[in-house]
Amino acid sequence: MRIAIIGTGNVGRALARALERAGHAIVFGTRTPDPSSAQQVTIAKASADAHATILAVPFGAAQDVITAGGGFAGKIVIDATNPLGMGSRGLGLTMGFTTSGGETIGAMAPNAKLFKTFNQTGFENMADAIAYKNRPVMFVAGDDATAKPLVMGLVTDAGFEALDAGDLAESRLLEAYAMLWIELARKRRLGSDFTFTLQRKA
Question: What is the b/e burial string over 4-43, where b = at least 16 CB atoms within 10 angstroms of the residue's CB?
C-alpha cells in the first residue's frame, strides 16, 4: 500500500523504515518539501494518493497539518501523537480524564476516519520492533469498524502485535500508557531498548 507520513522527524522516519521493510511505499508530506527528495511532497498531495496517512508531528502542529490536508475528509488517518507538555513534575500529558489528544484531533478532522496508534513506545522501537523475541504490543483505538482492519494490518506489518482497544475515546488510556513508557525510559533512565508485551497463560 501507499502510506503518507506527515512529518520527517524521528517517529516519521522510524515508521517509514518499518513499513518499507514490509513492502509498503512511503511518501512524506511536509509543508516545505525538499526539492532534492522525490519522497517528499506537500501534505495535501501525500494524503490524496495514500491508502492511509500517519500524523507523526508534535501534537501542537496537528491543526496546521489538518488544515493543509484539507481536513483529510474520507481518509484513514493514524494519530501517532501524544499531547505532551511541561508541568510542575516535568514532562507529562496535558489532557486525559475527560478527553484525549486523539479525540481532540478527531474533532479537528471530523470527516476523517481517525485512529490512535503508533504512539505507545519510542521511535527506536517503532523502527525495529522485530528485534524483540516476542512482538511488542501496540493498541489501536478508532470508531470506523470498516477501516480498522487495514490499520491493524499496518501495525502488524510494522512488527507489533496489534490489539483492538475499542473506540477513539480509549485514546485516553493509550496516551497514558505511552506516558508510562516515557516515564520509565526518559525519566527513570531505563533506556529505550525495552517494550511491553502481552502474555497469556500457557
Answer: bbbbbeebbbbbbebbeeeebebbbbbeebeeeeeebbeb
Whether this model's pTM surpasses 0.85:
yes
pLDDT digits (tens, 9 = 90+) for 55-77: 999 999 999 999 999 999 999 99
Name 21's Cβ contacts closer than 8 Å, sequence gap at least 6. Answer: 130
Q: 136: which 3 cell numbers?
A: 511488542
Burial 177-189 (b: 16+ CB within 10 A, else e): bbbebbeebeeee
Pairing state between β 2-6 and 76-79: unpaired
- Which class is 2-187 in CATH? alpha beta
Residue 10 has φ and ψ, to the nearest 5°, of: -60, -45
Residue type (1 letter), 26: I
